[in-house]
Amino acid sequence: MTALLQNVFAGLSLGCTYALVALGFVVIYKATGVINFAQGGLLALGAYLGYTFSTSLAMAFAVAVVLACLAAAVAGAAVERIVLRRMVGQPPFAVIMITIGLLFVIEPVITAIWGFENLQVTNPWNIDTVTVGGLVLGVRDLWTIGLTAAAVVGFFLFFRHSDFGLAMRATAFDPEAALAQGISARRVYAVSWAIAAALAALAGITLAAGPGGLSPSIGFIALAAFPAMILGGVDSPTGAVLGGLVIGLVEALTRGYQDHLFAWAGDNVSVIVPYLIMILILLVRPYGLLGTRDVRRI
Amino acid sequence: MADPILAVANLEVVYDDVVLVLRGLSLTVPEGAVVALLGANGAGKTTLLRAVTGLLGPHRGRITKGSVAVAGVDVTGADPADVVRRGVAQVMEGRRVFAELTVEENLRVGAHTRRARALVKESLERVFDLFPVLAARRGSVAGYLSGGEQQMLAIGRALMAAPRLLLLDEPSLGLAPRLVAQVRDIIAEINAQGTSVLLVEQNAVMALSIADHGYVLEVGSVVRDGPAADLLADADIREFYLGAPADGERRSFAEVKSYRRKKRWSA
Ligand SMILES: Nc1ncnc2c1ncn2[C@@H]1O[C@H](COP(=O)(O)OP(=O)(O)OP(=O)(O)O)[C@@H](O)[C@H]1O
Ligand SMILES: [Mg+2]
C-alpha cells in the first residue's frame, strides 16, 4: 500500500510537469490553431534562465522562479511577434514546421550560452524529504505540485473571468467574429505564447531543481506532454491538466511495477507507455477525453 | 452640412489579388438615418461591410481604390478595432455568436473596446431592456439559443460597443415572419434611440419599410438609389424582389438565383 501511494505521489509530481507543458500546448493551439513544437525549447530556456538568476546571480530562489517565468513569457511573445506573425495566413503545416525549426534553433543557443555540462540549480529544496504516515515525500515534489496547482488555478481564473481571458476564448471560437468586436488578434496570439512559455518555464525550473539537474536535453520532457495533450483533447485546457496528471501517474506506476509485470520487456516500458496511450486514444477517441469532436488532427 | 456618419466613395475591393468584387461603389449614410442596401446573392453587400469594418484581411481581400470615412475621419483600410472605437459596430452575416460562451459573456465581448465599466453596465441594462429574452437567459450558453434568440444576441452584442453606426448583414435571414417583424421593430427602436443604421437585406420590403433611403447593388456597384418610399413603389424593384410578400418572408435561395439569371439590373 505504501509502495503504491509512493508511486502515486511520484506520478503526481511528474504529471504536474506534463500538465504545465500540455496546458501551454492547448493555450497556443486554441488561440492560433497551431501546435507549438518549440514548447520543449521554451521549457529549457526557462530552466536555464532560472539557473542564471538563482545560481549565477545568487538571487533568492522564489525571485529567480518568478523572473525566469516572466523572462520566458517575454521570449515567447517575442518569438510570436518576430517569427510567427509573418506566418499568419500560411497553411498550419508550414507554421508547425516553423515551430519545429525553432526548437532546433533554441537548443544551440542554449548550449552556446550555458554549455553542455550538467548544472545544479541552487534551490532551497535539495533532496529534503518529509515523512507523512510512512510515506517519504520529496520537498521538491511537494513544491512542484503546489506551484503547478497555483499556476493552473491562476490560469483558469484569468481565462474564465478576466476580460482578456474572455477575448481569448472568443478568438479561439471564432477569430473573425472576435476581430469584429475590436479584439486584437495579435495581442491574443502574443499573450497566448507568453502564457505557454511561462507555464513551460515553471515546469522547467521545478524539473531542473530535481535529481536530474539541468542539461540541454531537459526539453525532451515536453515530448511526453504530447500524449497528455492528446489524451485530454487538444482544445481543452481542463483536459490538458487532467491528461498530464493521468500520463504522469501511469508512467510512474508502470515504472514502479514494471519489474514484476513487464520484466520480459526490459526496464524502459514506463518511458513508452505515454505514447502507447496516445496511439490508443488517437485510434478510439481522436478528439481526446474532453476535446471538441470536430477538431481535426494535422 | 455635417459629415455623414458613413461615406464610401468609389470603393474598389479585390479578393485574392484577382477577383474584383466592388467596382467603384459610393454610398452615404447620413447621421441618424436608416439606409437599406439591397442586392442579390453575390452582389457584394457583405464585402462592402467588410471593407468598412476592416475585416477584408482574413478573406484575403484588399481595398484597391476609393475611401471609407466615418463621421468625416478616413478609416480606409483601418484596423477593425479602430473602426469599432470610431463607433461602428457590425452584426455579421449568419449571427456568428460565440456559441461556447454564455449570453452575458457574448455581450461583454461586444464591449471589449470600452473601458468605462459604469457605461458598459448601462449598455448591458439597455440591451436587456430591448431584449428581455436575453436577460432571462443571460447565464445560458449561446449555442443553445434558438436562431431568433441568437440574432437578438448578435444585435445586442453589437450594441454593447455603444455604436453611432450599426451595420446589419441580413438580420432577417432564416427567421420566421413573426421574428422578422420583431427584428424590424427593434432596428427601428435602436434608430429612434439615436443610432444610425446601414441595413443589408434581401428582404426588400422589410428593409425599405423602415429605411429612409435605399441603394440597390448589382455586381459590385450601385445601380439604383433613392428615397425608400420611391424604391418601394417602384415596379421594377417589386418585380425583382418578386415574391417578397407583404409579410416580408424571404424566398428561397434557389429562387433568387434563378430569378437573377432572368433579369439583371444593370443597363
Ligand atoms: N474570400 C473571398 N474570396 C474570393 N471571392 C469572394 C470572397 N468572398 C466573397 N467573394 C465573392 O465576392 C462576391 C460578393 O460576395 P459577397 O459575400 O460580398 O456578396 P453578398 O452580396 O453579401 O451575397 P449574399 O447575399 O449571398 O450574402 C461573390 O461573387 C463572392 O463569390
Ligand atoms: Mg452577404
Automatic annotation (TrEMBL), chain A:
InterPro entries: ABC_transp_permease, BCAA_transport_permease. It is found in: Cell membrane. One of its GO terms (cellular component) is plasma membrane. One of its GO terms (molecular function) is transmembrane transporter activity. It is a multi-pass membrane protein. Belongs to the binding-protein-dependent transport system permease family. LivHM subfamily. The keyword Membrane applies. Keywords: Amino-acid transport, Cell membrane, Membrane, Transmembrane, Transmembrane helix, Transport. This is Branched-chain amino acid ABC transporter permease. The chain crosses the membrane at residues 6-27, 57-79, 91-116, 142-159, 188-208, 239-257, 269-290. The keyword Ribosomal protein does not apply. GO terms for biological process: amino acid transport. Its main location: membrane.
Automatic annotation (TrEMBL), chain B:
Keywords: Amino-acid transport, ATP-binding, Nucleotide-binding, Transport. Pfam families: ABC_tran (PF00005). Transmembrane segments: none annotated. Residues 6-244 form the ABC transporter domain. InterPro entries: AAA+_ATPase (IPR003593), ABC_transporter-like_ATP-bd (IPR003439), ABC_transporter-like_CS (IPR017871), BCAA_Transport_ATP-bd_LivF (IPR052156), P-loop_NTPase (IPR027417). The keyword ATP-binding applies. Signal peptide: none annotated. GO terms for molecular function: ATP binding; ATP hydrolysis activity; branched-chain amino acid transmembrane transporter activity. One of its GO terms (biological process) is L-amino acid transport. The keyword Transport applies. It comes from the Bacteria. SMART domains: AAA (SM00382). Belongs to the ABC transporter superfamily. This is ABC transporter ATP-binding protein.
